[in-house]
Design brief:
single chain; 112 residues; 69% helix
């Protein structure tokens, strides 16, 4: 029995034009060509999402996180929470939910 896991190696020949396409697609996804070929042959497709699409979501999460920390600090200090603060937090969560829905729709439209 081999010490290492068993593997199957296959030699595949590409034309220069085909290889240029593979290199371009792999570079576009920031992948090595071998990794790209293996993933596309096994999975059938590679989904790529631009990080720029999630910037508004990350900013909204940071703002909400800061507000939650402020509310928690105030609640620990006074042992109570003002209903206005809770309502403000609820509005921000609703805004984040709308942003996430729009982002999901945009990503799904780009993938299709």
């Amino acid at each position: 029995m081999r010490k290492y896991k068993q593997v199957k190696e296959k030699k595949v020949v590409y034309s220069l034009e085909e290889w240029a396409v593979i290199e371009y697609r792999a570079a576009k996804l920031a992948m090595k060509t071998g990794t790209y070929i293996k993933r596309i042959s096994v999975d059938g497709e590679i989904k790529y999402y631009s990080v720029g699409d999630i910037t508004p979501v990350m900013n909204a999460l940071r703002i909400i996180g800061k507000n939650i920390n402020q509310i928690a600090a105030k609640a620990n200090e006074t042992h109570s929470v003002n209903s206005n603060v809770v309502e403000e937090l609820r509005k921000e969560v609703d805004a984040l939910s709308r942003t996430l829905s729009q982002l999901a729709f945009t990503v799904m439209s780009n993938v299709a």
